Amino acid sequence: MKKVSIVILTMLIELALLWGVSILIHWELMEFLFLGGLLVFAIPWLLLYFTNHNQNVYYASVKGMTGADAGKVKVFRFRFSPIILGLVLFMILSLSLTVFYYFEYFI
């Protein structure tokens, strides 16, 4: 139950954040919803990815320069925490809402 509440709270916070930004830049929420959700999901994914990449580069540099083992090079594995799951669900819901809202333009 705690994880479900974290997922729902994440989605509500993201909706409030995107709504505030859409008011700030004078756009409709529907125009900003999917791309904003995609951007908010991409930020933690890229931070985790580049943190892992930088650690791997450091470990390889130390091993190449000194021969000492600084650590193992690790494969990047994206883990789904409740917050990340909330971001993904929000992105999927916002995509479906956007397609439903602009459906007449797709035909």
UniProtKB/TrEMBL annotation:
Highest taxon of the lineage: Bacteria
Q: Spell out where the chain crosses the membrane.
A: 6-25, 32-51, 83-103
Tagged with keyword Membrane: yes
Q: What is the lineage of its organism?
A: Bacteria, Bacillati, Bacillota, Bacilli, Bacillales
Alphabetically sorted, this entry's keywords are: Membrane, Transmembrane, Transmembrane helix
This chain's protein is named DUF3899 domain-containing protein
